[in-house]
Amino acid sequence: METTEAFRGLACAACGETVEGIESGRCPACGGPLDPEYDAAVADRTAFEGAGGGSMWDTVDLLPFAAADAVSIGEGGTPLVEAPSLAAELGVGRVLVKDEGRNPTGTVLDRGLSVATTAAWALGVADVALASPGNGAQSAAAYAGRAGMESRAFVPARAAFSNKAMVNVHGGDMRVVGGRYPDALAAFEAEREEGWHSLAAFDTPYRHEGIKTAAYEILAALDWAVPDAAVVPTGSGEVLAGVEKGFRECRELGLVDDVPALYAAQPSGCAPVAAAWERGLDAPEPWTTPDTICGELEIPAPAGGELALSALAATDGGAVAVDDADVLESAVAVARGEGIEVGVAGGAAAAAAWKLAGGSDGETGEFDEDATIVVLNTEAGGKTPDVLRSHLMGQGI
Q1: Is pTM, for the whole model, over 0.85?
Q2: Mean pLDDT lowest among 84-88, 244-248, 389-393
Q3: What are phi and psi of 236, to 5 degrees?
Q4: Rounded CA separation 343/346 (Å)
Q5: Percent of the chain scoring above 90 in pLDDT
Q6: Is 237:304 a contact under the CB 8 Å cutoff?
Q7: How far from 193 is each of 124, 127, 152, 188, 200, CA to CA, in Å?
Q8: 290 to each of 20, 130, 198, 293, 322, how far by Cα in Å?
Q9: Looking at the DSSP assignment, which residues form a beta bridge with residue 5?
Q10: Would the N or C end of the chain have less CB density within 10 A of its end CB?
């Protein structure tokens, strides 16, 4: 499979080592995460101007592969939905929800796994595998099935039933591991066999690469007016790193003059990125006692933690930890007030936006009264309906 004209290869985000071609894995020199590089001068700006009208592959000039070769199920092109009630509550000019729950398997991860599976197919891979809190396992099974590959997923017992069910429905093999995500990751590493191609975040350079297209679509939907801030649910760091790269590439193309401030939203029961940001660290320290209802964000040792912190620093953003009760209440409030079905991870972003705006305590917030804020909903509300319903039952509803 040929790569696109602008694609130049891979570079290590940690040491700068370059790797030719589309090889996967991590940096051979230092083990750091690899990142695709491009010659922006070759890219066609007009392709980006129409971003969001259909598939994310419409902006193929700064992706490694041609749209015709992509393992695609129509991911991307998700709506940027006005949220006037939320804007009024936050006391800002506009709030818009980038609703990634509209992707094929209901998660923003579909963008990255489309590109990662395309790379695996181009490399002649027959078997893909990963450990995942849930959404990545379901998405990987769907794309592997589309490509005719065998897929294996290691998920914690507490993963959502919908994820576990759909892994099998898509034809994937699944190992349910007792405990939490670190236990699933340990089982994956212990049982990993030769020939298994890892689709884990940052084991492949292509997951965050697909996610960056969400940034293209946000800017195109705003007619290339840069929002003041974007609030991003953060677990492994791949979504935050990908979105930052997408905004940065649009600036390098001359489509915009600036990038929005990015804010990482994490649950207070597992907030290694937020804690590292608060302490001024370059890399997160592992969270020793993870405990949050936000299973997708319960990543105590994020593989992309350094990249996430770099993204925050590069955009003059920040990081916020929010309590589970506020996460659940925010997810319900967005569904009731705006009609948008927000998953628990998306609820973390809404809760963080509320906290950044000053909350209900009259504190001075991070946002001006005329600010435009984008909240990234990374998963469909149907991913975690039992969690949201239990929250309401606890209130006697």
Answers
A1: yes
A2: 389-393
A3: -70, -20
A4: 5
A5: 87
A6: yes
A7: 17, 10, 11, 9, 15
A8: 38, 21, 25, 10, 14
A9: none
A10: C
